[in-house]
Amino acid sequence: VNCVFSFSLSSCLALCRGRVVRVPKGPLIRVVGTEVVIPCSVSDYDGPSEQNFDWEFSRETDFVRIVSTWDSTFTSEEYQKRVGHGDIKLRRSSNDAVELVIRNIQPTDQGRYKCSTPSTDATVQGNYDAEVQVKVISDGLSVSGSKARSSMPLRLSEGDSFKLRCSAITTSPEHTHLHVTWQIKSGSTWQDILSLTHEGKFQPGPGYEERYSNGEIRLDTGANDTYRLSVPQASSVDGGAYRCLVSEWVRGADSSWQKIQEKSVEVASVAIQQTALDVVISTSNVSVTERDSLDLTCNITTDRSGIFQPEVIWYFSASPDDTLSDAQVLLSMDLDSVVSDSTLISLSHVDKNSYRLLVRDVDVEDSGYYFCQAAVWVPLHYGSWHKVVERTSAPVSVVVTALEPDYEVFLNASQTPKFSDDPTELNCRITNAQDTEANIRFTVSWYYRQRLPSDDVVTEELLATMDADWTLLLGDRSRERTQNGEIIFSKRAVDTFSLRIQWTSESDRGDYFCVISAWTRHRNNSWVKSKDVTSASVSIFWATQDYTLTVEAVKLKPFFVAGHTFEMTCKVSSKNIKTPRYSVLITAEKPLTDQSNPNGTTRIISLNQDSVVRLEDWTDQTRVDGVVLEKVQENEFRYRMYQTQISDAGLYRCVVTAWSPGGGGMWREAVNGLSNPIQIDFQTSG
After folding, report:
1. Which of 23, 290, 317, 573 has CA atoms 20 to 30 A from the CA of 387?
2. Both 443 and 563 in a single domain?
3. CATH number (domain holding residue 491)
4. Are 40 and 21 in contact (CB under 8 A)?
5. Mind telling me which Pfam families this protein's record contains (predicted)?
C-alpha cells in the first residue's frame, strides 16, 4: 500500500484504500475426476461496479493463461480445447466475484492458480491478484450395498422390522472423514432419513426427528466399515427406494470442513403392505324384549401373520351418525385380553376371531346403535407394542320392546248431583291387572269434555295429571278451585283414584274420563311411561228448571178495632229448589196522606233463613215489642202486631226469599216471592 511515511501504520490503514483480491486459503485438496470450483472476489476498487477477472495456472514457475471474463483471446493454446468444450469455464456469481470451474480434474491440474483483476482505479493501490494452491489426490472412496437386496424388492407388512446395510471405506492419502446418509426416494426426490456426519454426530432428516428420538429408526456402524439402517417397526411411509449417500470431507487450511467428493449406492426397494382388517357384527337389525338379554358378536378378519394381538371396543350411540367421540364405550378388551369392568354387560373371546357382547336385563333405554372397533397391535423390538391398523364395523340397530302391563280402566260415579252445588265424586279403578310387578307403578290423568247440543267437536281439557313420582300437576280449568279446596284429587286405594267436586256448578256439567298410565322403572332407577289406558266417559248432568215460589198471606181475625192485635200468616210453597230455606220480610204500604213515609212502603221486621229476627224500619219506641215475626213450620210464618193504632192502617205483605245451600256452607239466593196484600182499615173494621 502506498502511504506517506510520516503517518503511523494505523493512520495509513484508516486513510488509505486499496483494491483487495481474494481467493480461498490453500492448499485446496481435491479428488481426481471431481469438479473443482475456485472462487475469486475483489473489493475496495474504483471504477465500474462490474469487474473483470483473468485466471492463470502454474505447475512450477511460469504461469499459463487459462480463461478471462473480458478477453476472448486470453486463453493459451494448451487450454483452448478444454475451455472450448466447457470443461473449464468462468461462472460469474456477482459483479465483483467469479468462480473458476474445472470439470473432471486430473493430476496434471495440480499446481498454483492465480486470479487477476485489470485495474480500473484512478491510482494503483492494493493487490490486483491472488494465488491458491490446488492439490489433486487419488480417489480412495468406495461405497457398496448388498447386491441381493438391490436386485429384488423387500416386501414387508406394516409393523415388520427391517435392516439395510451399506459399506463405505476410503484409502485417501489425506486425513479425510466420511459423512454417511441414508435416504428414501419419495416420488422423484430423495429425502434424508438419518445421517452420521463427518463430525461423528447423528442427524435425523426433516420429519424423522420424533421417530429417531423414540428409537424407531437407528443408524449403527459395524465391522468391515458397514453402516446399518434399522427400522424396528415399518409404517406405510417407509415404502420406497433406499440408498446410501457417502461424502468425503477434509479440513482446510482455514480449519473449515470442505466436501471433496460424494458417492451413493441404491441398496434396496422396500414395499410396505398395509394390514387388512375387516370388522363385522354378525347380525344386522335386532329386536329384543325388555328384561331379556342382548347378544351380539363382533367378527374380525385379518391377513396378518406372525405375532400380533387384537384389541376390541364395543360402542353404543343413540344415532347412527354419531362419531366415536360422541359414542359411549360399553366394554373393551385390550391387547393383553383384559376386559374393562361392568355389572350388567360382559365381553368374552368366543374363538380366535369372535368377540361376544352380552347385555343382560335390557330396558328401553338400551335401544340404539351398537358398533365394534378392532385394532391390530404388533410387538416392537424394545418390548412395547405398536398399533398397525384399526377398523370400525357398521352400526347395528337394536330395538328394545317394552314389556307392557295388561290392565283395564273402569270409571264410575259414586255421587252424582241432582241440583247445583251437590257434590260429585268419580272413581277411576284399575281392573284385571296382569304383569304388574314391583317395577311398574300407575298414575292417573283426569279430563273434562263439555257437552254441546250440536255435533261440534270439543277438545278435552286436562283437569289434573300425575307424574311418575305421583306429583299432582293441575290444569288451568281446575287450578284455582283445587287450591281453594272445592275440587279434591286423591288416591283412595292402590288401584283407585278419585275426583271429588264439593259443590258442582252448572259449568261442571259434561263428560269426564280418566287415563291410567303405567310407568316402568329402568336400571338407573328412572321411571319411563310404558302404556296409557283410557276409560269410558261418565256424563255429569241434571235437568235445570226455573225456580218457582208462591206466597199466600191469610188474615187470621177478619174484624178488629184499634187497640186489638193484628195477626196474619204467610204460607210458602216452592218447586225445583233443593232443600230450600226461606227468609221473610213484612212490609206495609201506608196511605199517601201519611207524611211519615212519603215513599209509601215501610219495612217492618224480618226473619232470615237461619231464623234470626231483625227490626227494620219500626221506629215506634213506645211499642218496641209491639211486632213479632216467627216461623210456625218450615213453610209457614206468622206476623203479630199488638195494640194497633189508626196510624197502622195500610196494606201488609210478606216478601219471601228462597235460599239453597251453596259451596263452603254458604247459602245461595234462589228466587224471591211477594204475597197477596192484607189490609188494615179501621173505618171498615169498626
Report:
1. 317
2. no
3. 2.60.40.10
4. yes
5. V-set (PF07686)
Determine the structural domain holding residue 355 and report its residue range.
Answer: 277-401
Regarding whether 125 and 167 lie in a shared domain, the answer is no
Q: Does residue 4 belong to any structural domain of this protein?
A: no
Distance CA(256)–CA(672), nearest Å, equals 131
Contact 185, 268 (CB under 8 A): no
Same structural domain for residues 513 and 622?
Answer: no
Specify the pairing of strand 129-137 against strand 28-31: parallel
Question: Which backbone phi and psi does 481 adopt, to 5 degrees?
Answer: -70, -35
Report pLDDT digits (tens) over 551-573.
Answer: 999 988 776 678 888 999 999 99
Q: In which order are the strands placed within the sheet that holds 54-58?
A: 28-31, 129-137, 111-116, 54-58, 64-68
Indicate the average pLDDT of the chain. 86
One domain for residues 420 and 533: yes
Instruction: Kindly state whether residues 370 and 317 are assigned to the same domain.
Output: yes
CA 244 to each of CA 166, 179, 317, 415, 437: distance values in angstroms, whole numbers, following the listed order: 6, 10, 52, 105, 79
Q: Give the integer Cα–Cα distance in Å for 347 and 370.
A: 14
Q: What is the pTM of this model?
A: 0.53
C-alpha distances out from residue 654 to 322, 575, 588, 630, 665, Å: 86, 19, 9, 12, 27
Start-to-end Cα distance in the chain:
177
| Cα 20 to Cα 24, 25, 171, distances in angstroms | 13, 14, 39
Helix H or strand E segment including 82: helix 77-84
Question: Cell triple for residue 268?
Answer: 434396496
- The Cα angle at residue 452 between residues 412 and 659, in degrees rounded to 5: 75
Q: Which of 249-263, 359-373, 654-668 is least confident?
A: 654-668
What is the rounded CA–CA span in Å between residue 68 and residue 74? 6
Domain count, the chain: 5
Tell which residue, 199, 289, 180, has the closest CA to residue 242: 180
Residue 12 lies in a domain: no
